[in-house]
Amino acid sequence: MRDVNDPSHASIPPSGIPPGAGSTAADTSFLESLVGYNARRAALAIIAQVLPELQPYDLRVVEFSVLTVVAHNPGITSRQVCAALDILPPNLVGLLRKLEQRGLIHKRAHPSDRRAQGLYVTDAGAQVQRAAQHAVAAVEQRALPHLSAAERATLIALLRRVYQGSGAGTTR
Amino acid sequence: MRDVNDPSHASIPPSGIPPGAGSTAADTSFLESLVGYNARRAALAIIAQVLPELQPYDLRVVEFSVLTVVAHNPGITSRQVCAALDILPPNLVGLLRKLEQRGLIHKRAHPSDRRAQGLYVTDAGAQVQRAAQHAVAAVEQRALPHLSAAERATLIALLRRVYQGSGAGTTR
DNA sequence: TATTGTTATACTCTATAACTATA
DNA sequence: TATAGTTATAGAGTATAACAATA
Predict the structure, then answer these.
(1) How close does chain A come to B130, measured CA to CA in Å?
(2) What is the distance, to the nearest Å, from the Cα of residue A20 to the centroid of all Cα atoms in its chain?
(3) In the prediction, which pLDDT does A18 show?
(4) DSSP letter assigned to residue A57
(5) Are B20 and A113 inside 8 Å of each other by CB?
(6) Do residues B129 and B57 make contact, with C-beta atoms less than 8 angstroms apart?
(7) A93 CB inside 7 Å of strand C
(8) pLDDT, tens digit, for every residue of A19-77?
């Protein structure tokens, strides 16, 4: 394999790339043949666009996910949130505390299990969640301008088969 | 919306889930309608299966990616690796140092730019990379048993359009 | 004996500022 | 003035062990 930066082989064809040592594009063909690599790159690219949309609500992606699950599942327990979002219990504690201190969620005694607590959104929490959900849905549309609705549906269906087929959630 | 854990509405139909407070499945329908959410879950599920395959070679996922790019692009510079894999330069330094100390890669003076250094795999590095690449390719096959070759190709093509269409690599 | 929620803690990953040598 | 490589450091994100209260 030839050195990518050896000038003795340069400019066939002449690529209109600016000067500097790091100019030519690297070969990543093997990595690009992997579903895992492409899924990770795609996820990071979308999340990078979602982040600034959630900033006005002072929510990170995980916090939005937790708030959304609680809003859509009133009375859900911590363990159920952990199972749904693949979050470890110790890491959820701080998230819930922060959301509760902001007055977005609150806890009530569980009707049948005195160890557990039911989680609920407050009125303010429901408002914030609705607005943030609209913003997230809108930015996904904008982030994927080249995908038709059918292609998006196909993509999502294939991705779900990837992580539902394998043992998702077993390793943490 | 009804409380998910309110026993007064329980068991219609009776779900065969074991006892405890966190038993019923939570509604995550909105999150599951997002490409970003599904891509992240899929990526994490696959990476969780790739990790143990790389353990015999004492490589983490990022380290394998760097080693692979260097192996396939002899003489590549640090900045080019950063651009190809969307890694920040300060975070690459430690990765390269570790790979160099293990004798898997080495640096040589860049032919035309005295600021830069060309990266190369050693013979040992090339051996490790080849073996690890085979292991990774094999585990991807095993991790996606329900996807045909055509479906895998479709999935990869759609994912690439997601992160190549948006401004991938611009935010970091 | 198992589960819920929790604390404490450690380790990895990612991000920013600032410096030097060179272009 | 800009770029390549580097240091130091800060902040997210993720992981395990262990505990009290309750099932």
Answers:
(1) 11
(2) 35
(3) 39
(4) G
(5) yes
(6) no
(7) yes
(8) 345 467 899 999 999 999 999 999 999 999 999 999 999 999 999 999 999 999 999 99
Establish if A12 touches chain B: CB-CB under 8 angstroms: no
Nearest to B45 among A2, A74, A163 (CB): A163
CA of B72 to C1' of C16 (A): 31
As a whole number of angstroms, the distance between CA B105 and CA B136 comes to 20
Query: Buried b vs exposed e over A51-72: b needs ≥16 C-beta within 10 Å?
Result: eebbeebebbbebbbbbbbbbb
Residue closest to B138 by CA, chosen among A168, A121, A131, A36 = A36
| A22's tokens | 């790091």
pLDDT-derived band at A166 (thresholds 50, 70, 90) equals low
Would you call B158 and A151 a contact, using CB atoms and an 8 Å cutoff? Answer: yes
- Strand D contact at CB of residue B85, distance < 7 A: no
pLDDT digits (tens, 9 = 90+) for B53-70: 999 999 999 999 999 999
Q: How many Å does it take to go from CA B84 to C1' C21?
A: 25
**Which domains does chain B show, CATH number per domain?**
36-150 (1.10.10.10)
Identify the DSSP state of A25: P
B14 at the A interface (CB within 8 A)? no
Rounded CA-CA distance B162/A146 in Å is 8
CB B49 within 8 A of CB B136: no
Q: What is the DSSP letter of B160?
A: H
Question: Which residues 6+ apart lie within 8 Å of A73 measured at CB?
Answer: A80, B1, B4, B26, B27
CB interface of B with A, residues 39-98, below 8 Å: 39-50, 65, 68-69, 72-86
| Amino acid at position B169, single letter | G
Cα–Cα distance for residue pair A43/A40, rounded to 1 Å: 5
